[in-house]
Amino acid sequence: MTPSTGTPPDAAELRRRVAEFVAEHDPAATDQTEFLAARFDAGLAWVHFPVGAGGLGAPRALQNVVDAEFERHGFVPAGREGLVIGLGMAAPTIAAFGTREQRDRFLKPLYTGEEVWCQLFSEPGAGSDLAAVGTRAVRDGADWVVHGQKVWTSLAHRARWALLLARTDPEVPKHRGLTYFICDMTAPGVDVRPLRQITGEAEFNEVYLDGVRLPDSLRLGEVGQGWKVALTTLMNERVSIGGRPEPREGGLIGIVSDLWRTRPELRTRGLHEELLRLWVAAEAARLTRERLRQQTAVGQPGPEGSAVKLSFAELNQRISGLELELLGVDGLTYDDWSFRRPDGPDLLGRGAGFRYLRSRGNSIEGGTSEILRTVIAERVLGLPAEPRTDKDVAWKDLPR
Amino acid sequence: MSTSEPNLLYSDVEQELRASVRQLLADRCPWRSVLDRVSGPGDPAEAADLALWRELAALGVAGLSVAEDLGGAGATARESSVVAEELGRAVAPVPFLGSAVLATSALTALDGREPVRALLADLAAGGRTAALAVPLSTAPGADFPTLVRAEGGTLHGTVPGVADALTADVLVVPAVAADGPGLYLVEADRAVRTPVVSLDQTRPLAEVRLDGAAAVAVASGRRAADALESALVAGAALLAAEQLGAAEWALDTTVAHLKERVQFGRPLGSFQALKHRLADLWVSLSQARAVVRNAAGALADGSPDAPLAAALAQAFVSEVAVRAAEEAVQLHGGTGFTWEYPVHLYLKRAKSSAIALGTADRHRARIAELVDLPPAP
Fold this sequence. Notes:
The complex is a heterodimer.
Chain A: H1 11-24, H2 32-41, H3 62-72, H4 84-97, H5 100-112, E1 117-120, E2 136-140, E3 143-150, E4 161-167, E5 178-184, E6 190-195, E7 204-215, H6 226-235, H7 252-262, H8 269-297, H9 305-327, H10 352-359, H11 369-380
Parallel strand pairs in A: 1-4
Antiparallel strand pairs in A: 2-3, 3-7, 4-5, 6-7
Helix pairs in contact in A: 1-3, 2-5, 4-5, 4-6, 7-9, 8-9, 9-10, 9-11
Chain B: H1 12-28, H2 31-39, H3 50-58, H4 77-89, H5 96-108, H6 116-125, E1 130-132, E2 148-151, E3 154-163, E4 170-177, E5 180-187, E6 192-196, E7 205-214, E8 216-220, H7 221-260, E9 262-263, E10 266-267, H8 272-300, H9 306-331, H10 333-336, H11 343-355, H12 360-370
Parallel strand pairs in B: 1-4
Antiparallel strand pairs in B: 2-3, 3-7, 4-5, 5-8, 6-7, 9-10
Helix pairs in contact in B: 1-4, 4-7, 4-8, 5-6, 5-7, 7-8, 7-9, 7-11, 8-9, 9-11, 9-12
Family (chain B): Belongs to the acyl-CoA dehydrogenase family.
Organism (chain B): Thermobifida cellulosilytica TB100
Cofactor (chain B): FAD
């Protein structure tokens, strides 16, 4: 690849490049992995990434243009559900903090889907207070040796690599003693165990790290700068806003509305009132996502992004709860309690009971609703922070 | 169901219009002057600020939706919606909703003949104002009102709770004649207008009694009913924008207060119990903004979804605006309960507006009809 010089491409130029690319690589006749590899090499994977890292240094907003163009030419990649952490979190973090060698090694197989990623962040003792993680990484010559336990780890059983946040200096306050690593999930000492959830299945895992040796070349960012790197990862951990409008009644509210329409014998006055309230709330939330999508498309994303996950969780919970009540005797049943290992979250599939139980996780995963409210109050509204007792205390001296 | 979503953003032109209206209101309609207007013992009509209305008209506010050849701006509901946000933010006591939205929308829905054309030109210029003679609580989708009878060119009947009628020069009256519904114009001084002591003093109401007042028929039958309906739909959509503006004032003012006010040795805004309430309110307001833009866009685009979008806006935003105002009163503590501080103006406006043009409950029932979610038997 020849690094381009001069100004980054605009929307028209990107459309031209996609058309040229598709002319050379027929989406219908090319193997998906090969197609994606070539797309990466052409800088059309993430156009806002640097040249050589799957991008062209274009404005981030133009990624939507490129995705829409590929879709228009009939290319919609399949089987990408297991890649959410790699695509959504690992890629932007590696692009921002990775060395040249790390970018070259990791980004392409991540993009093509040949390598699955997971995230070793949360611990039994560090959930909302992520900066309190206690998994220790100790320097030993050219390596780091890691001991600790991580939880709520989606995809760990399929992952080749992980984003790992570990403590390298317990003597300083918690935010300052962290370092960020890429963890080799095939290394000796990595033990992945399924963590069964209230739904009966094990979408998540717990991961034990027992003397795992990681070469220093897998460190991402400087020693002691792990919190700064983790914030980049967390900023990308949000409900992603797609490139196309969602239809009205596209989500869970559509399922319940159709149930109401097709099963008149289930209708009661109280449930009608509740259904209408939720229909209004769901439509308002959909229009808010649509407005955010339009803002993002013109390069002006607003702070509404932080509102989207909060209302998504609450609505899923209320709508799925209504669905069970509406179902009456059928609401007393559950589709299957057997211990399964799904590839990813399935919020709309399976039965109503599953949807109700799975939705309880929506206000816990990816930042609890309580933490999100605090984030909105402090970062959007500018309200003062709560007084903190842990800010200037060495991590090792914190109560736990 | 529409295939394309309305544009939910604000254009540069809309933001310029917002800035000029906001500046005028900051100069001419600070909350102290609104409070003064409603604090005296005088006639409720004196709360209305017609001098301010003429200045707003000079900016084009009175004739935004009136055609350019009649002296209007030839703009759409999108621009009107932005202006409504600003008027709500200032609880401006001007006849925007009654005259520039409800009466004007009924008239622009008719094909432009005299005397409608001349009246629209006067309304756009701000020289005269009009009111739509329906109870302000009338919801879109309701049956054609039967409060007024038309007989041989005269009108008979009484209409309670008419907004902006006290200061109006002309009344646009839906009335029923022997051959069906019609819309009529009546010179306002031919009606007996009795002031009502209104919950929201910044939007004066009157009972309008017509005892054989001479009237000019401007539409009949289906055309009259459609014109009234389109006025109520536009009113619902634009009232929601006004509610959004008022709610934003309430949130902004409460946030500012909680940053300043210190109790227990810390700013009140650092207490999580209060932060989370305001965060939830901000989330609701960001949704209200999308819903309001959607309604304005659907009207502007002439979308068949406009009645649904307007009903959604009222069903959603009414409750958000009332919550914002109630939270503002509560979180200002003792100050919020005093007459001297303006929060009560916003509470009264918000609660009245939640009833105006149909309660949220009526709009939910309308949505149920429009999206086929029938009630239980």
